Amino acid sequence: MISKAILKEFQKIVGKEKVLATEAATMSYSYDGFLDKPVKPDVVVQPQQDEQISKLVFLCQKLEMPMTIRGSGSNLSGGAIPVKNGCVISTSAMNKIKQIDYTDMYAVVQPGVITKTLADNVERNGFFYPPDPSSMSISTLGGNVAENAGGLRGLKYGVTKDYVMGMTFIDSDGNTVKTGGKTVKQASGFNLSGFMVGSEGSFGLITEIILKITPRPAASRAMTVDFDDLNKASQSVADIIAAKVLPATMEILDNYTIRSVEAATSIGLPVDAQAILFIELDGHPAHVDDDFAIVQKICKKNSGNIKIARSESEKNKLWQGRRKALSSLARVKPTLILEDATVPRSKIPDMMKKIQSISKKFNISIGTFGHAGDGNLHPTILTDRRNPEEMKRVEKAIDEIFDAALELDGTLSGEHGVGIAKARYLEKELGKGTILFMKKLKKGLDEKNLLNPGKVGL
Ligand SMILES: Cc1cc2nc3c(=O)[nH]c(=O)nc-3n(C[C@H](O)[C@H](O)[C@H](O)COP(=O)(O)OP(=O)(O)OC[C@H]3O[C@@H](n4cnc5c(N)ncnc54)[C@H](O)[C@@H]3O)c2cc1C
């Protein structure tokens, strides 16, 4: 609880109606996409301008109050849950697209712009903002930058970091920091944009982002391919890349996930298939046709059963299986734990096998789906938090999944970030020296540890 006098200081900065402090109003800010122990903030503020954020930071410094900046709260690693009460600074009222320049191909946005809003805007003008997290209709661009969000198009088009040209952020003292810019090339000063991407609110509050946009591909074609053997699906992924074809998306569902989706939706997925690949190619029409033929040949050679989408509406129908994966798995048991282990794509067959053997070893249900093209798998554990004995087995299984990913030269997180969920595993991947270096940076840039404390192990 904070005093009325302090509340008034917040109201002076952003206006009375942009300050929430009642039990009911702050409750929803104690959760995000990662279900852990909720911690309610003392106060939630919704600034509309950079200067207000700067003043809020000054005030929080004076009060020694922790600050957690929050977009839509859709992250899956606990990044937006305050761990020490304090102040949540919501970017929901900073949601303007400030400029789109189609000649120099960039967009300038406030951090609270919803990802899909920008993507739809540029698409209407024949342009393309490729990073497409599945959550793009709810996530903000500020949250995407802070988590280095990826998506279905990662294989061909990269992830958020590949589209950040520059930004403005407010540091822990309330100073404005500008980095990067509107030019394709920029070598003046440190690459602070690169430093801020994936920083999960630990080093500054991003108030403006300059994002690269590209011309929209002229054509695209899509297919699904089902296989009676998971290895044949994984082999097809490796063969397609080896044939120098780069699909825009190449997604995979395992048998457990296929059956869960079909049980939930009855859309006609082949429940006996051990895996389905969802493949989309885009680019120049002639190029797309050539590559489409190569992909079909490879999948046939690996005994895949191909369904081609003849139109956009057919593609949307076929793609439902992939889109419904997470929500369908969520129906299976009361608790869903979505992991994000990622390996070099050539190691996907090994990782898939490892996940299956971990599922058997600990007798727990795991459905796996994900971005086969870039090695980013989502082993999804279905369990029940109310069963402590099963939860012990689940924790051991998660440890082994991470160990397996690291043994295969992979990472704990391909796109969901560390937050509080994966902080205790980070040293295993990065080593002691790296953790110490991160802590030194944090100490130097946020001496009192007030910017989103307790995240990324800091
Ligand atoms: C159903 C579902 C599907 C998803 N699919 C994907 C996917 O395909 N790919 C993927 O990468 N992620 C996915 N996610 C996770 C999530 O949507 C992303 O992590 C997204 O980037 C979070 O955006 P947000 O606006 O919700 O940020 P929040 O959750 O509010 O915040 C995330 C982190 O960013 C920090 N932050 C937010 N705004 C700022 C700012 N302006 N300045 C500094 N730091 C800031 C916060 O402090 C926090 O640490 C999915 C989530 C759900 C629920």
Please tell me about this protein's structure.
This protein is α+β, with helices and mostly antiparallel strands and 458 residues long. It is built from 16 helices and 18 strands. A seven-stranded antiparallel sheet has the order 15-12-14-13-17-18-16, with helices on both faces. Strands 5-6-10-8-9 form a five-stranded antiparallel sheet. It starts with a helix and ends in a 13-residue tail after the last helix. Bound molecules: flavin-adenine dinucleotide (FAD). Flavin-adenine dinucleotide (FAD) is lined by residues 32-33, 68-76, 79-80, 91, 111, 133-135, 139-140, 142-144, 146-147, 149-151, 200-201, 205-206, 326, 415-416, 452, 455.
State the gist of this model.
The chain has about 450 residues and is an alpha+beta fold. Helices cover about 35% and strands about 20% of the residues. α13 (about 350-360) runs antiparallel to α14.
